[in-house]
Amino acid sequence: SGRRYSRGGSESALRVALGKAPPACSFRPPVLGRDLEIAATERLLSGTPIAVQRKAYLGLELRAGGGGKYQMLVYPLQLKVQLIKVTAEGTKYLAIVKNQAAVQGVNKANALRLRAVNVTSGPEMGQAKLLGYLGSTLVAEATDTTPGELTGEASAVTVGAGTNGDGLIASIDDVVVRVPSPF
Asked: Sheet holding 24-27: strands in order across?
């Protein structure tokens, strides 16, 4: 999604360059489902203007569709990770982790992984657990008490920058979508 971007790259990686609007771009693999895990290796490239690098993010999305989604956003220069829920009513921050040492900077690979599964038994039944990883390190965890607000089943990889991502250049590689076990 997004109108003003270009893509290219090598045989194994997708290179994304953003224009003036919109401030983000996402690519959806052809896998649908509610209880999924998505992983990708993403890099913020040094050809990105310094002002955009400071606000640039790399991300993953689950349960996207119908105007809502879960997102894991990693800000390479801010060393920050966010788990958010977007609905028609707005954005709800489920977890924010600052000064995360596992976040890699410009031109370095960030191996992102996001898992969202509904709890089917116990006292948290009916809630959704979100787990965000960088490499093998669990960096953010959250529980959503109202997962039914999200009706979508799409997953996506995304790159962007707050309000203006003009000039942002990133690469995306090794995209995997799977059903976590046990979920």
From this structure: 24-27, 154-161, 56-65, 68-75, 80-87, 90-97
Neighbours of 125 (CB within 10 A): 9
The CB density around residue 9, as the number of other CB atoms within 10 Å, is: 12
Paired sense of beta strands 110-118 and 154-161, if any: unpaired
On the question of pLDDT at 2 being above 50, the answer is no
Do the beta carbons of residue 95 and residue 105 sit within 8 Å? no
Calculate the alpha carbon distances from 134 to 145, 146, 150, 165, 176 in Å. Answer: 24, 26, 25, 23, 14
Residue carrying the six token digits 């809502």: 68
* Nearest 10 degrees: Cα torsion 129, 110, 41, 158: 70
The pLDDT of residue 84 is above 70: yes
Q: Is the pLDDT of residue 113 over 90?
A: yes
DSSP 53: H
Q: What's the pLDDT tens digit per position in 3-14?
A: 444 455 566 788
Res 1: pLDDT? 45
